[in-house]
């Protein structure tokens, strides 16, 4: 399955010259040990795609995630070594321009050089909001797309991939049922978040997200907007504000202090953090913890 790409040496020379200055900060990324060259080589951009892909292929392909633990995907810059590895791979999977603009820039050239490219967010992302993986129904569609690309590249293991996919889809169905249970039996219908990462989930399960910042944590509102949000929270008797793990913004604390609310930490799953990796967490275990946070914020009244 390994491709022979005659342009690789030339590309490396150009890449090293063009990217050295901007990408030097990523040179300390830990390198992965050489893998079985007989297996399909798949490169993914950030955690949910990596986790879904790993669960589908099992031990029958080599999957490497390009963005290090705890690093925000939007502004990440690949090192020249990482770039070379992608061009020597079989499949490159990314979400879309709204999540990894750098990946969109290289996608066409990768395809021209024999790498199968999957933009998994195509026809799923709306209004430039990338957070589709937090909606288990859309996450199922992501997994189906990943399976189809991998099975087409490696038909020898298609039945194994299909069996793994079915097990994965069942887990998404179970998560979907849990979310329906929680949102249908909660006294609150409003959730306040540090930025707008829960829109897809909110629309799917019938609650309202009030975000302090925009789609990006860097989209900070004006003082007037913050005052308006605080007034809305007071009128709705909001007791909790959901803040993504790793956030450095002080705005949620400002609003929480103003309205007398408690800060709850949630992981939007753009990355896993070192403590989560050490504990053996994955997409589903983190989503279960996120679900517990939603139970508290929505004041779940079920048994």
From TrEMBL:
Q: Where is the signal peptide?
A: 1-20
Q: Which UniProt keywords apply?
A: Coiled coil, Signal, Transport
Is Coiled coil tagged as a keyword?
A: yes
Q: Which residues form a coiled coil?
A: 158-185
Q: Name one GO molecular function term.
A: metal ion binding
Q: Tell me the organism.
A: Tepidanaerobacter syntrophicus
- Give the superkingdom in one word: Bacteria
Q: Name one GO biological process term.
A: metal ion transport
The UniProt similarity line reads:
Belongs to the bacterial solute-binding protein 9 family.
Q: What is this protein called?
A: Zinc transport system substrate-binding protein
């Amino acid at each position: 399955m390994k491709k022979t790409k005659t342009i690789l040496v030339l590309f490396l020379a150009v890449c090293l010259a063009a990217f050295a200055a901007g990408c030097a900060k990523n040179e300390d990324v830990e390198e992965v040990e050489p893998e079985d060259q007989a297996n399909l080589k798949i490169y993914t951009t950030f955690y949910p795609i990596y986790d879904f892909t790993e669960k589908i292929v099992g031990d029958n392909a080599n999957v490497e995630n390009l963005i290090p633990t705890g690093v925000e995907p939007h502004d990440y810059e690949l090192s020249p070594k990482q770039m070379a590895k992608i061009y020597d791979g079989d499949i490159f999977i990314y979400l879309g321009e709204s999540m990894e603009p750098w990946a969109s820039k290289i996608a066409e050239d990768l395809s021209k050089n024999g790498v199968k490219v999957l933009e998994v967010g195509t026809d799923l992302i709306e209004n430039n909001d990338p957070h589709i993986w937090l909606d288990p129904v859309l996450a199922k569609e992501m997994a189906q797309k990943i399976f189809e690309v991998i099975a087409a590249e490696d038909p020898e293991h298609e039945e194994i991939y299909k069996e793994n996919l079915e097990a994965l889809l069942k887990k998404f169905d179970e998560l979907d049922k849990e979310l329906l249970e929680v949102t249908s039996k909660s006294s609150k219908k409003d959730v306040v978040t540090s930025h707008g990462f829960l829109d897809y989930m909110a629309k799917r399960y019938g609650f309202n997200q009030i975000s302090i910042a925009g789609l990006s944590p860097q989209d900070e509102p004006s003082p007037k907007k913050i005052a308006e949000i605080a007034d809305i929270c007071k009128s709705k008797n909001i007791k909790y504000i959901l803040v993504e793990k790793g956030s450095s913004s002080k705005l949620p604390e400002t609003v929480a202090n103003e309205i007398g609310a408690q800060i709850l930490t949630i992981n939007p799953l753009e990355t896993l953090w070192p403590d989560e990796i050490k504990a053996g967490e994955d997409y589903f275990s983190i989503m279960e913890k996120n679900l517990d946070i939603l139970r508290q914020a929505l004041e779940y009244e079920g048994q």
